[in-house]
Amino acid sequence: MDDLGATAWNYLASSSPAGTGGTIERESLADRARKAVLELIDREHLAAGDPLPSTGALAERFGVSRPVVREALSALAALGIIEVSNGRSATVRPLDPHLVRFYLSRALGESRSDSFSTLMDLRGPLEVRAARRAAEGLAASGEDGAEERAALQQLRARLDDSLQDSELYPQLDLQLHQEIARLSGNRALHGLLEAVSVPLFRAMQDVRAERDLHGLVGSEHEDHLQIIDAILAGDPEAAAAAMEHHMRSVENFTTAPLITS
């Protein structure tokens, strides 16, 4: 599938607005039908690959014409929510993280004057929860978690070795936060944090550049080590506390006079 952002934008840009060939009534009906299909998927807990009712059945159910239903289905297909094939009922597509990423990217973009604070407001509580859940998961995994522990220990060593590498360290920083989200075992939590990975990485690069400029590299690394060690120890409270301290430290650093002046 093409990049969701481009797909969604092309669809929206090609839609006929009221007064340029389409009618307000028709657009309103198609919009209502789109919402009704989404509610149907959610209410009936349809999973990836599950079929929707036929176009005729949906038209009867929603009290609209078949062309209106087809228009609604085409819109949802363009957004990657369903898949439409000739001769078959539409089916629900697997979850696409690009959809959430597209929305969050737009939302952050609209907060141009304070996009970093908006990002931190979003990720802060999620990161703390992820660290807690990751520690709980490793504590409960026993010997089954040996591979995850080894990978986290290896990442810890790489962070140690690359502290003075201004290009590599932010990459490993992002990898650490993604790994913690994965270890949380919460797919929704992981998906949300993954969705903000692009603006997050840019922010990490900007923060590292400021640390380099002012000779302040190091404190963030100590935070990372404390978070990792608490997770490896299977201590949820310590992991959450370490992550919360890290989130506050990052936000305070970026709002200090040396950054904003």
How does this model look, in words?
72% of the residues lie in helices and 2% in strands. The protein contains 13 helices and two strands. A hairpin with a 7-residue loop joins strand 1 and strand 2. It is elongated.
Percent in helix:
over 70%
CATH classification, class level of the largest domain: Mainly Alpha
**CATH fold-level label of the largest domain:** Four Helix Bundle (Hemerythrin (Met), subunit A)
> What is the CATH architecture assignment of the largest domain?
Up-down Bundle
Q: Note the run of SSEs as H and E.
A: HHHHEEHHHHHHHHH
Record field, number of beta strands: 2
Q: What structural category do the secondary elements indicate?
A: mainly alpha
Strand percentage lies at under 5%
Tell me about the biggest sheet? 2 strands, antiparallel
CATH H level of the largest domain: which superfamily?
A: GntR ligand-binding domain-like
Average pLDDT level: 84
The tally of helices reads 13
The global form is elongated
Low-confidence runs of at least 5 consecutive residues: 1-26
Q: What is the alpha-carbon Rg in Å?
A: 23 Å
Strand order of the largest sheet: 1-2
What distance lies between the first and last C-alpha atoms, to the nearest angstrom?
44 Å
Tally of separate domains: 2
Domain HTH gntR-type: 27-95
Pfam family, one: GntR
InterPro entries: GntR_C, TF_FadR/GntR_C, Tscrpt_reg_HTH_GntR, WH-like_DNA-bd_sf, WH_DNA-bd_sf
GO molecular function: DNA binding; DNA-binding transcription factor activity
